[in-house]
Structure formats: C-alpha cells, structure tokens
Fold Metalloprotease.
Amino acid sequence: MKWQGGRQSGNFEDRRGMSSGGKVAVGGIGGVIILLIGLFMGGDPAQLLQQMGANQEVATGEVRELSAEEQKLTAFSRVVLQSTEDVWGKLFKEQANADYPPTKLVVYDRNTPTDGCGMGQSAYGPFYCPADQTIYMDLTFNEELKQRFGAKGEFALAYVIAHEVGHHIQNILGVLKQTNELRAKMSEREYNKISVMTELQADFYAGVWAHYVNKNSDIELTYEDIVDGMQAAAAVGDDHIQEQAQGHSNPESFTHGTSKQRTAWFKKGYDTGDLNAGNTFEDRSLK
C-alpha cells in the first residue's frame, strides 16, 4: 500500500493528551458484553451509553508529544480520510448527482466527549456519531487489529476508517435515520438483524471506496492490500469475536455479521464499484 506523500485531510482533530481515564460503572458479564459490542466496530454509541449508565470524568490539557509511530499513524489516517473525500466526492456527483459533505475524524486517548452521542470510550472501538457527523477513534485500536484480531497489513486500518465513512454515507442518504426509527418498534432480536444489514452495507461502501482508490486518490493499492482488507473484515465478524472471547457464538445476538458475510459484502463493493448495488436490506439471506 503506497500512501506516503499523499494529501492529508483537514477534516481532522487531535485530542490526544486532552482526556482523562474516566470510569465506567459496569462490571461482571455486562462489562464483557459491552466491550465486545465496542470491538465489533461501528455500533450506536448513544444507545450503548444509555444502556451502560456510564459515569465518566473528563479533564482537559495540552496535546501531548507524539511518538514516531503515532505520527506515522496520524499521517496515514489523514491520507486515508482524504482519499475517501476524493472518491466519494466524485462518486456522489457521478452516481447520485449530489455534493458529498465530508465527515470529520477525531483521534483521542481513552475517552472523549461527542456532540450528541455521549462519551466516547476506547473500549468501544472506532465509531461514527450521526449527531455530529464525526468518526471517533483511539489509534491504539491499530494494535488491537494486529494483536487481538490478527489483521495484518496497513490496509486493515484503512478498511476500518472506510467502514466508518460508510456509516457517514448511510447517514447522508437517510439510512441511519430509518434504522434508528425501527429500533423502538422491534424486539432486540429483530433489531439485531437490521443492525447486521446496516453494518454489512457499511462494509460494502468500504469496498466501493477501495474500488476507486487507485483511480481517484493519492493512494495506490495492490490486490494483496485488498486481501488484507477482506481478512480484516473477517477478523471482526461477530462469530469470530464471540468464539474468541467465549468459545462459542450465538447467531441471535449478532449485530454486525459473520466473518463470511462481512468479507463478502466488502468484496462485492470492491468488485462492482456501484453505489447502488449494496442494498443489504433486500438480501433475503439476512432476514
């Protein structure tokens, strides 16, 4: 993956060194479940915080000095974000006849406030807040991808960012509004299926982005990078994470899709490059 020297997005805010180690009032198996939900990526942080009854403290301070590795990850993230702006800006004009309003990326240590989604926590993993149209990420998640989930290569983190941008696309198109309205009308089991469809569509949009990266942005990918992306999608499948954490999986509790499903929808986006080919909500196999 060639990204060095690429343009870096200005829709970026660095809050590292400005947050404290807030405490979350959750223990026992409940805490384990919430940690798993967070690591699945892309969940609804506002709902998560309401369920947890979180109690955090935030302290402000000066932005700390970054290590060489942190500086590299920062530059990488900003180049990837810029590439999503380049790709989606062109696609929206060509395929949706509309302008693309970019999302913002906030990086932080441990916890940070959001504008409408409560308090973000590193344990949740990267997430998108529809209320402020912002992606929040503790970049130490990159080590989680490698060490905990076994996702290899730089493109694994690029996939994660592209997945969260996928949620931004859904927000712009009104999908998240519709799915959130369904939450109050369904049982948890029924809504889990809607959640899976929502997450798989974000994977599809990540694949669409990857399809156009070489043509429409400063990043150059090889097919090996795409394979790394598919492996990253598989690594954060519900079945894989649950089996890793508890030795078995419970399909009724899946909220993001299996490893096979996540890989398949990412690949479909990459293969087609068609913004309109990712209607996961009409896929009978997911109902």
Q: What stands out?
A: The CA atoms of residues 89 and 109 lie 30 Å apart. Residues 12-286 form one domain.
